[in-house]
């Protein structure tokens, strides 16, 4: 492959992010023909078409997507580092894309994001709901908090905290149907879950017992399923940091507390800490200061 200059590579990233040659040309202060010629020369040098372009279509090819994903983070980091050398370099700016489970977003991340945005008025944040890292690359995320073990190769995985799982139900529900005496009794009760494919695991005198629930109610939100338990719909198996407050104030009663349950984990996932833009690194550190305390909730 023929050599490529940094200007051509940077302009290519600008075209992709602008969504059209016209918009990119206006941002860069060059003419559309100049930008189009630059793109054609770059494609000639790499020997592959990078963009489908017409009057109505502007889309990355498979090869173009590979080039963009490899280049964009580096240029973003470079631009931000240059900005930090200027007089106003302490001001973070730019976009951050984040994902996390819905319940965590509503109960925790939303408030933290608002605080961060107030501190950094030139930053904007997009927060999506996800429980795993499957869409990290496709959604071009900067950070993801996941409750399922990360699976995408090449991503940095940092375990943030562990949380014990608790079993609980509303007092009125247990008064009506009685208390289960052992984990094996649970299938006889109304079970509530946010993930019917995830087992409920216990340590018993006879060894490990895992129940795959046949739930009466499924909602893809641990916040929602805990609320259903509080309202007397059945028994829930959920993380301690979501259960401790309703247990403490009496809205829920722990079930089978003498049986040890499994630990679940929360991970932070990101692409490359060396090329991480300063704004993303600042937001990551901001989150870590707050996230570590969730796992410290006392029973």
From TrEMBL:
Domain HTH lysR-type: 4-61
Keyword Transcription regulation on entry: yes
Record CDD domains: PBP2_CrgA_like (cd08422)
InterPro entries given in the database record: LysR-type_TF_proteobact-type, LysR_HTH_N, LysR_subst-bd, WH-like_DNA-bd_sf, WH_DNA-bd_sf
Sorted UniProt keywords: DNA-binding, Transcription, Transcription regulation
Entry keyword Transcription regulation: yes
Family: Belongs to the LysR transcriptional regulatory family.
Name by which UniProt lists this protein: Transcriptional regulator
């Amino acid at each position: 492959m023929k050599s490529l200059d940094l200007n051509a590579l940077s302009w290519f990233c600008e075209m992709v992010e602008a969504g059209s040659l016209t918009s990119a040309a206006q941002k860069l202060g060059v003419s559309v023909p100049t930008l189009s010629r630059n793109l054609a020369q770059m494609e000639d040098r790499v020997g592959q078409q990078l963009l489908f372009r017409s009057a109505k279509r502007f889309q990355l090819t498979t090869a173009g997507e590979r080039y963009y994903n490899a280049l964009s983070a580096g240029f973003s980091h470079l631009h931000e580092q240059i900005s930090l050398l200027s007089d106003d370099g302490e001001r973070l700016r730019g976009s951050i894309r984040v994902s996390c489970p819905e319940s965590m977003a509503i109960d925790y991340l939303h408030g933290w994001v608002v605080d961060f945005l107030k501190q950094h008025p030139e930053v904007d944040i997009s927060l999506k709901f996800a429980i795993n890292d499957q869409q990290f690359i496709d959604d071009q995320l900067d950070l993801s908090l996941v409750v399922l073990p990360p699976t995408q190769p090449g991503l940095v995985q940092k375990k943030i905290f562990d949380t014990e799982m608790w079993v609980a139900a509303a007092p009125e529900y247990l008064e009506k149907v009685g208390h289960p005496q052992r984990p094996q009794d649970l299938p006889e009760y109304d079970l509530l879950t946010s993930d019917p494919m995830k087992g409920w695991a216990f340590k018993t005198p006879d060894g490990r017992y895992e129940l795959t629930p046949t739930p009466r109610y499924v909602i893809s939100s641990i916040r929602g399923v805990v609320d259903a338990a509080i309202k007397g719909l059945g028994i829930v198996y959920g993380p301690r940091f979501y259960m401790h407050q309703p247990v403490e104030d009496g809205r829920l009663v722990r079930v089978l507390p003498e049986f040890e349950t499994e630990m679940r984990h929360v991970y932070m996932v990101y692409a490359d800490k060396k090329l991480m833009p300063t704004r993303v690194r600042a937001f990551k550190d901001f989150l870590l200061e707050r996230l570590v305390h969730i796992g410290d909730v006392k029973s």
